[in-house]
Amino acid sequence: MEGSSSYEDLVYGTITVDNKDMEDGILLKSDGMPTYNFANVVDDHLMAISHVIRGTEYLSSTPKYNLMYDAFGWERPVYIHLPPIMKDEHQKLSKRNGDASYQDLVDKGYIKEAIINYIALLGWSPKSNQEKFSLPELEAAFSLEGISKSPSIFDPVKLAWLSGEYIKEMSLEDLKARALPFMQQSKVWGKDYDWDKLLDLVKTRIETLAEIPGKVDFLEEFGAYDTALFFHKKMKTDAEVAKTVLPEIVAVLEAIPEEEFTLTRIHDDVMTLPEKLGMKNGQVLWPMRVALSGKETTPGGAFELADILGKKRSLERIAFSMDLLK
């Protein structure tokens, strides 16, 4: 067939294909059943499909469908072809190849609103520099003009950042409800810890809910550790400084009544020690933090840890650490 066939795509504009490049289409199989392409056109027409949205791999084959629409005298649908989302520069995202689906991402602890938000920004750019959108905001801001004609690469780092931003803004009650399945996977679950305090402590330090057990499990994993952790060049502290400071911290904590062992009281009483001992704040707080956690990094500082552990556990851990230093 001579000539060419054209149609309008709302993203790519006018698409023209030479008729000589199109093979004759088979409409019916040898058993009398319609082929997919034929059935697809008839089905879409009978269901009054007005817009067809699909991948760019169909850009060049769409004229075949249009020939059938024209032959039947039916109105062609409006076409919107979208560029693919890529795993990297060469591979498309594919569930077949083990790439995560929406539900997989939810199961991994990403916030569902963040997933929707991020996916909406793949291949589409708003007119403003806004990156965080609620669903109503997306509906209001979306326009076809913002759709890119080039493939987009799925960036898990960007998704994680966006998920973390949503977590930071959550109320404690909302976070607790969503995080429950992940909290139950923690070694801390079922123990007498205050989960309101734990979640408030970690919510600014996580990007997915699945990170929660790893952030709080140290509370049940305390044991022998390398006392080299007491060395901190910036804080000007080491094991010898810790040997001086820890007994003083024990005396302060023991003097706090059980019912008054709160974050504020712990802070106020311990912070009298730097001046008393002629030391910098870090020379008191770093040894206290290490002695309470046995870790180089924790989701909170010394005061938060003592508050969450409670008076009895805090004193037990510091005593254990003092024995290690001997």
Strand content: 5-15%
CATH fold descriptor of the largest domain:
Arc Repressor Mutant, subunit A
Helix content: 40-55%
Q: Which regions contain 5 or more consecutive residues with pLDDT less than 50?
A: none
Query: Given the C-alpha coordinates, what overall shape results?
Result: rod-shaped
Number of strands: 6
Strand order, main sheet: write it out: 1-2
Q: How would a textbook summarize the main sheet? A: 2 strands, antiparallel
Structural class: mainly alpha
Reading the helices and strands in chain order gives EEHEHEEHHHEHHHHHHHHH
List the domain count as a whole number. Answer: 4
CATH architecture of the largest domain: Orthogonal Bundle
Molecular structure report:
The protein has 326 residues and is mainly α. The chain has 4 domains: 4-82, Rossmann fold; 95-160, Glutamyl-tRNA Synthetase, domain 2; 170-220, Helicase, Ruva Protein, domain 3; 227-325, Arc Repressor Mutant, subunit A (Orthogonal Bundle), CATH 1.10.10. Helices cover 46% and strands 8% of the residues. The strands form 3 sheets. A two-stranded antiparallel ribbon has the order 1-2. Strands 3-4 form a two-stranded parallel ribbon. A two-stranded parallel ribbon has the order 5-6. Helix 10 crosses helix 13 and helix 13 packs across helix 14 (302-325). The chain is rod-shaped, with a radius of gyration of 31 Å. The model has no long low-confidence stretch (mean pLDDT 93).
